[in-house]
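Quick entry between incubations.
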Amino acid sequence: MADLQPDNPYAPDRFPDPNKHVEFPEEAKKRFDWILTRYPTKEAALLPTLHLAQEVWGWISPEVVHYVGNLLDLSPATVFGVVSFYNMYNQKPVGKYHLQVCTNLSCMVTRAYDIYDHLCEKLSVHPGGTTKDGLYTVVEVECLGSCGTAPVVQVNNDYHESMDVVKMDALLEILK
Amino acid sequence: MEQIKVLLANIDKPDSTSIDTYMAGGGYEDARKALTTMKPDEVTQLVKDSELRGRGGAGFPTGNKWSFVPKNAPKPTWLLCNADESEPGTFKDRLIIEKDPHLLIEGMIIAAFAIGSNPMSYIYIRGEFYYGATVLDKALDEARAKGFLGKNIFGSGFDFDITVHRGAGAYICGEETGLIESVEGHRGQPRVKPPFPAVIGVFGGPTVVQNVETLACVPLIVRNGAEWFKSFGTPKNTGPKLYCVSGNVKKPGVYEFPMGITIKELIYDHCGGITGDRKLKAVIPGGASAPMLTPDEIDIPLNFDALMKAGSMLGSAGIIVLDESVCIVDAVWRLAKFFAHESCGQCTPCREGTNWLESVLDRIERGEGRPQDADLLLDMSENIGGKSLCALGDAAIGPVISSVRKFRDEYLHHVEHKSCLPGTTRYRRLDMPVAAH
Ligand SMILES: Cc1cc2nc3c(=O)[nH]c(=O)nc-3n(C[C@H](O)[C@H](O)[C@H](O)COP(=O)(O)O)c2cc1C
Ligand code: FES
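Done. Structure below.
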């Protein structure tokens, strides 16, 4: 049930490991420099920089929190406060495929919970949990703004619309 | 009423997102006309005359909002486009963004000119719309290459550019001051008003926040005039309007009509009626925040004033249709769960109250409800409504109050019989663990 506990900000793994060095690769550094030119303050570049960091590392580790804070002259607490406020910044590593099932009303009445329950059972994961092989993370999410083609499952950045259990199984076959 | 293709005129064209397609249909000529032949105040007056009202939720007259921007503010003025589109049941802005991004960009150029925006602006798009953000980025590059963005646009001396700013999964960032905080790089917690954004908004400057669909109307008004715009709909509720229909209907989707088609006509004449030809149970007319209507209340026009009069609201025009097989307590629980998850945590009545609503609804659904629970829900709602900084608290109680008033029997049935009404479905399984929020 550990997955179900709210995150503890004081847990030991919240502190950066001094032996782990993180730094943007060249491409990302260029992108970061471009981001800075688009805003009148450094702080305003925080959300896009975190998106960039997540693209690079897959999640926002404590080391990344400190690294991004240094880049933007923000305290780690400020950065962590923003990371924990927004749903999309992963505070833990997620699977190669992040299966995000919308269960909000329009998806619910078109049977989204069937898909969600099926995924949890088939992959033996708790909500928010990741399979042991690191392949899949399953979460329930709020309305994805695609209710006309409900139910919707977002896999990483892509929407899969008008889904059902059969289509979900077929999709899993592709996502290996 | 006949379906129209005004705002959606381009979306079926092949390669509808390319600037060449857009320009072949006269695109960017309206921005040129505004910037080279009109004064900013004339543009604002034109939009005022058109009686365009904001399509994001509140229905505030757009031209009036523009005229509130002080002329000689010490800090630069900003235009922000609200593409957060997170209200459950709403998916219209996404269509414009993904299929006709240049219409939005042109609308922003004209709006920015009218309010005297500084040379940078942001489209705040919800983070999940990753594809939409890439479409916009490409469209912006095309517009820059043609000189429609950048310095001295159309030789008018006006400089303007746009950056796509992706949100990161927070409904509250659709609220305009939450959005402003988020653009500044903060947690999306709404601000105390006043000062209103038109006076002090993002980076300390006067700020106009406008919904995608609202901005998409602007080039059309410049092209065809205020009278043309008013020829759609009724006085004070003017213009072509996008309606998002979802839930238990045969043909869900985005439909465009002159503002004011009735709910009944929309569902039965255009969306093919209810799935499986079942009976209608309830309609949520304006996104999750809008109080629900019963089948005998749906013969009313989908416009701002008529729905307000009916005790609901047009909101974001997200029409969620629920048929007789839906357990109303379960449906309302799901919306309550949404609001509890999305409350930003600043104001105690909203932060605590939304969680309590969720847990009381959950216990009723589980057959553990108490006889006084229906009244308890109303009482709690009263203690949330009007007691928070932004309208999220008020939004959260809309479905709760209306459903308790209109479906009280169904609530009582749960308490008495410890089960849903016969013939209704609970979609979730009560034995599944629920993730913490
Ligand atoms: C909780 C909450 C969420 C909102 N979400 C959105 C949204 O996702 N998109 C939007 O355009 N407006 C949203 N709004 C309305 C905005 O605050 C604002 O009224 C709107 O962006 C103004 O633009 P308009 O006048 O063009 O409608 C929301 C309001 C509240 C209170
Ligand atoms: S309810 Fe699932 S996408 Fe809107």
